[in-house]
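fold description:
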Amino acid sequence: MPELPEVEVVRRGLEPRTVGRIIESVEILDARIIRRQVGGADRLRGALTGTRLTAVARRGKFLWWRLADEDGHDTGEALIGHLGMSGQLRLRDPAPIVALPVATPSEGPAPDPLRHRRLTLHLDDGAAIDLVDQRLFGGLWTSPLAPTSDGALAGQGSPDSLLPASAAGIARDLLDPAADLPAIARTIRSRRAGVKSLLLAQDLVSGIGNIYADEALWAARVRFDTPGGQLTQRKVLELLRAAREVMERALEVGGTSFDALYVNVEGRSGYFARSLSAYGRDGEPCQRCGTVLRRALHQGRSSHYCPRCQRSPR
């Protein structure tokens, strides 16, 4: 699943090429991709056709465009999306849909955009935004805007404090300057659940998924099943800062790609998989102490850890 760094890579790719553009038409190839749209396909087309994209913003793993009418007035709605397990937002220049050429090894894979295309937004400059999703867990829909509870900017790229109502229950992420790390740490320490499950709870801190949780836990020397209440405030802050640091490093190299399911808007993969210290490395030596890393199934998820560096909770 794309996590915060991967979605931010997509947002940064979309911003210069879609902001200011007008949606001329909406092509829906599979209605399942808009299952969260109130009023269905007709409502979506009515809300988008002729509207201008004025900003593209992100909070956690949620991405949205702000919408304005033909006179430049805000419509009070956003077009919001989530990439789910395998969603991609791909930009297509003015030209017929054709398969991208095979990339050189240094560029990463470039999957055929014809496969699993579910929805296309056709823009006034002839370009298009394709939503490609193999597993159909992602989607796009419109959502009314509401003010954030703290009055700060709604998310990365947002022009103000208005947030799509669909994302109102999503906490701020660790790359958000308005995120209150001490408050997040205190909440984690008030819970009995394992700390990894708390990192993945999007109502506590958003954007962290399985990959970056394992990496942060390894960096902070905390085992995945340690109850939040057993950690000190200092240790939880260390963990949160480790998560932020690892996501910042991933963002610098385009995110983490293990296959063609996550690519940027041009169909290219990120390279952070080469820098992972724990996730997916079970059976390999720990980079810190040399102990063989292990993988454990906990609450339905695989967790990768060092049995020496990350001790079992008492």
Remarks:
- The first strand starts at residue 23 and ends at 28.
- The mean pLDDT is 90.
- The CA atoms of residues 52 and 71 lie 9 Å apart.
